[in-house]
Amino acid sequence: MKDWQLLTEKLRQFNLERDWSQFHNPKDLALALSIEAAELNELFLWKQPWEANPLKVKEELADIFAYALLLADKYNLDINEIVTDKISQNAQKYPANKAKGNARKYDEL
Amino acid sequence: MKDWQLLTEKLRQFNLERDWSQFHNPKDLALALSIEAAELNELFLWKQPWEANPLKVKEELADIFAYALLLADKYNLDINEIVTDKISQNAQKYPANKAKGNARKYDEL
Amino acid sequence: MKDWQLLTEKLRQFNLERDWSQFHNPKDLALALSIEAAELNELFLWKQPWEANPLKVKEELADIFAYALLLADKYNLDINEIVTDKISQNAQKYPANKAKGNARKYDEL
Amino acid sequence: MKDWQLLTEKLRQFNLERDWSQFHNPKDLALALSIEAAELNELFLWKQPWEANPLKVKEELADIFAYALLLADKYNLDINEIVTDKISQNAQKYPANKAKGNARKYDEL
Predict the structure, then answer these.
(1) Which of B95, B102, C48, C69 is the most core-located residue (most Cβ within 10 A)?
(2) What CATH topology corresponds to B1-77?
(3) What is the 3-class SS of A47-76, one letter each residue?
(4) Which B residues, 44 through 103, put their C-beta within 8 Å of a C-beta on chain A?
């Protein structure tokens, strides 16, 4: 069994014990994910790029992975596959020779 | 090598070829993650919880995982460990008998 | 009639003509607002604090004000009053002598 | 003096007394705004569209207006003007006869 599947299994079990799947529709899961992303961003607010508290970054990232995994589970997505596919797509949108050393969006390359 | 380490390795290689690590400080990576989370949420806007386009959900979730993995990499975090730790913490904050069937925050249980 | 009431009136009229109030429940309006906030943030991504395109900042800020006004309208809130109240509250949470020159949260002052 | 200008003046004064303008670059102000937007959204999480606590909605909306006004101030924007302009633009992107009763984006009308 893959890493991701093991984590998803643990999360599923956790929610099952609390009867929480009734709240976990995709729209609210996506909302929860973006709220956690904002909490992560708050660690950097008014600060230099490296000044966030690493212990808190760890906590918020864990929450983000948890909601992302639950959402992927709702749509039966395989994490390895979707991320690998996306990297391939991005390799076409951002050819190394054009994108090298700049952060412009693909439609401005 | 674990699943997520393989994905991280691919992402690192992708960015290396484009010389993008200069932009990838933790603050901007966290910002990028929250922007992708918003794009995910946009798929559900003005809609019922299950009406988002699944193909687009897949794309946005892939972006979210990619930035979350890059950020975890910056802080040398082990995904399995941080998510498992968080589940244990939440099991204490949300005891099954108290949290069962309600979505209140731990400080309102 | 106050400035913001005039704007609210125009927004209401705009939506009435499109029969959009059926979509504009508070939850989706709040979601729309956070999506616009993310679009605003995207203008600053991978950039120095002052490098965003001012014309685009103008556009995104307009969207944010529009959704914030529509949401305030749903709850019959007076903008002058709620912002002035909040400033008074913050003046107590962040006394000038303690908060001066630092960006710590009130519970860390 | 317009409503907006009065509020902006109060906010400016508040920050001046705390010497906070050093932190208030546009990038961090935009970030702060999106964090407040997420706090607003959290009031609706796992809930039906009208179940948020109105008193808390009031608080979070006030924070959002405050940061939006500070950001507008940085770019010398006139709120009435930018929102009115945006409504005119949207009237062209979303003609009433095509957009009536549906929530599709302008490029899908």
Answers:
(1) C69
(2) Helix Hairpins (1.10.287)
(3) CCCCCCCHHHHHHHHHHHHHHHHHHHHHCC
(4) 44, 47-50, 52, 54, 57-59, 61-66, 68-69, 71-72, 75, 77, 79-80, 82-87, 90-91, 94, 96, 99-101, 103
